[in-house]
Structure formats: structure tokens, C-alpha cells
Amino acid sequence: MPSIDIAQRRARLATRHRLALSARAADPAEIARSMVVLHATDPATVYLSVGARGIDLTPADMERALYDERSLVRLLAMRRTMFVAPTELLPILQASTCDALAHKQRRAYSRFIEQAGVVDADISAWLAEVETETHAALLTRGAATGAQLSKDVPRLRTQIDTAPGKPYSKPTNITTWVLVVLGAEGRIVRGRPNGSWTSSQYTWAPAETWLPTPDSSLSAEEARVELVRQWLYAFGPAPVTDLKWWTGWTLGEVRKALAALPITEVDLDGTPGILLTDDLAPVPEPEPWAALLPALDPTPMGWQTRDWFLGPHAPALFDRNGNIGPSIWADGRIVGGWAQRADGEIVTRLLEDVGSEHRALIDTEITRTATWFGDIRAIPRFRTPLQRELTT
């Protein structure tokens, strides 16, 4: 069994994830392709992830890719998580993941509606009618918010209490549920935000007017094979459990996809891993580098097993739900954390000695990050211990 040590995994991370200086790119879509998808649960993350890997890019370049060129698109996909994906990847994500997600969410929402007893009709047929009406209303408007659509389609304002009798009970209308299902089916798309690039309130647009005609010829099995191939190139070598975690698929689905690819088992310092057979050649170690990555960046969120780049720093950088905060990287390992204060200052703390050369590289990245933010202040979606300390 071939062995791949931590140094080689870090070299691959630096190059494949475009974090080494020589690997950075001038196109947001190309950066996204390198990562397969960009994590976008926090709207600021996707912008900062591109900024950290970019050459002379600005937030305006990212907005142009998302909303003018539309080479990137925002969607729910693996693990019901928000991502920004290259547009050409959509058929693969749709067949491998999103179709099943739409089915699962519709079934869950139907159950809540049935339990509430507010609909005196066949729930599946009723919900399908509401979805069709909502899609038609969006086609008429061209673009709209959920609040605007709920005026056009009164049944979107149907109130459902998902936890009756509980102290945290709070009835909610079904607008968001319907939009989630339509989005997961690929029938509608999240468009421009209502505000700056840190906003999570979006307008919606019909997929017909926003995206090219989708390729619906892929089977779920074929799509999973291609998604696994892309993940292995970007994140391999890795244990199979990391792949299962990232996709959110069953172990059977993961193994079936792997069986269709030329895979070689490798030893990762005592842990079994896998790698594409045609990708066994060593990747040259890049020049020294540093990076400031945002909370939930796709690099640290690409693996479930993180000791080889995280070291002992998890208690400072992760919250209780497994969300990583802003992190400082040097030569393929996490060495500290950072935060933006209310006045815009980028503050950092190193958790280990990095030497003067990397300290200078980190200072350069601090300046780049502050320039990227400009006058924008990003309010964190969650707070990690180190982020709290740095902003108190």
C-alpha cells in the first residue's frame, strides 16, 4: 500500500486549494472549480474564500460572477448546506444530491402540514398546486422576494405550528418551505441579495430565465461518480469516512460511486485512505505561504478528520456545533485565528510560533483581508471562543 505523509497532503492542499501564492487565480469561477463548491452558509464566507485565493480580485468581481455572468450559482446541496457552485456543475449536483433533498424536504413539510390539520385536502396534491402557483407567479414577476410572492399566492401564508404545546412553539407560514423545495428541484434560483454581499436575504428568479437549459440526462449514480471524482482530486487522499461526511450520502451510495472509479488505497500515517489511481505522483512542495480563511471556509470543512492540519487548536477555533471560525494558515496547517472588530480592524492571534518569514506573510494577508472588506462589517453567524476573545 503506498504511503502519503502529512507533508505531501499539505502540499496538495496548498496547490489544489489555490492557497500557495503561485496557485492563486484571477477568476472566481476557477477558484470555485478548484474547491468543487464553495461553502456559503454564511454569505460573507464565499466572498472571503474567493478573496483569500484570488489575484487582484474584489467583491465586485464575485458579484459579477454570481449575478451578471452567472458562472456561479447559490444552492442547497450536500448535507442540506448552502453552497456556491460553478454553473456547469449544477446537473451533477442536481442528480446526485438535490433531487433526493427536494423529495426529503417535501415529505417532511407535508407531514407538518398534515399534523397541523389546516388543509382539508390531499396534502401532496395541495402542496404541488402551491408550488406550481408560486413558480408561475415568479415567472410573471421575473424576480421577487418571498414576501412579494406570498402576496401573489395567498396559500403561501398558511400558518403551521411545528411544535404545538412546546415552550418554543412559533407558528410560521410555508413560504420558505415552498421556496426551499422549488430551489432544491432546480426550478428557482437565489438571485441578488437585498443589501451588501454579507446579506442573507435574497430575491428569487425562475431557473428558466437565470440559467442555461439544464442537462437532465445524468442518472443519480453517474452524477455521484463524477462528484466523487472531483472531490478526490481536490481533497484526496482521505479516508472514505471523510467522503461520506462531505457528501451526506449513505455508505452504500459512496461505495457504489467509488467502485466505478480507478481508486488506490493508501496509508495516511496509519489510517487507510483512498486516492485516484492516476493521481499518485507527488505534488511539489510550494514556496512558503500564509492565508486568512473565513469561518466555514471549504478547506477546513472539506474533511471530517482534521488533525493533520488542525493540530491541538480545535477548542479555540470551533464552536459546540462543529463550526470553524476564521483561521490563519501557514504551509498547510492552522496556526491561529482572526476576527473583524466593529471598527473594521482585522485582529489576529497566533497559537504557535511561525517564525519571522511567515509572520511577514501573515501581515500581508491581514492587509489584503482588510482591503477586501473595505467599509463592510460582517456580523458572524456564530461565535467561536477565539473570535469572542478577539472582539471583546
| Strand element count | 13
Strand fraction: 15-25%
- Number of helical segments? 16
Stretches with pLDDT under 50, minimum 5 residues: none
Could you state the order of secondary-structure elements as H and E? HHEHHEEHHHEEHEEHHHHEEEHHEEEHH
Share in helix: 40-55%
Rough shape?
globular
Structural class: alpha+beta
Mean model confidence by pLDDT: 95
How is the main sheet built? 4 strands, antiparallel
Distance between the termini: 50 Å
Using the CA coordinates, give the radius of gyration: 22 Å
Q: Largest sheet, order of strands side by side?
A: 10-11-12-13
List the helices and strands and how they pair.
Layout: H1 6-16, H2 28-34, E1 38-39, H3 43-53, H4 59-68, E2 72-76, E3 82-86, H5 90-116, H6 123-141, H7 146-152, E4 159-160, E5 172-173, H8 175-184, E6 188-193, E7 202-206, H9 207-210, H10 220-235, H11 240-247, H12 251-259, E8 263-268, E9 271-276, E10 290-293, H13 307-310, H14 314-317, E11 327-330, E12 333-340, E13 346-350, H15 355-373, H16 385-391
Antiparallel strand pairs: 1-3, 2-3, 4-5, 6-7, 8-9, 10-11, 11-12, 12-13
Description:
This protein is of the alpha+beta class. The chain is globular, with a radius of gyration of 22 Å. Helix 6 (123-141) crosses helix 8. The chain has helices spanning 6-16, 28-34, 43-53, 59-68, 90-116, 123-141, 146-152, 175-184, 207-210, 220-235, 240-247, 251-259, 307-310, 314-317, 355-373, 385-391; strands at residues 38-39, 72-76, 82-86, 159-160, 172-173, 188-193, 202-206, 263-268, 271-276, 290-293, 327-330, 333-340, 346-350. The strands form five sheets. A four-stranded antiparallel beta sheet has the order 10-11-12-13.
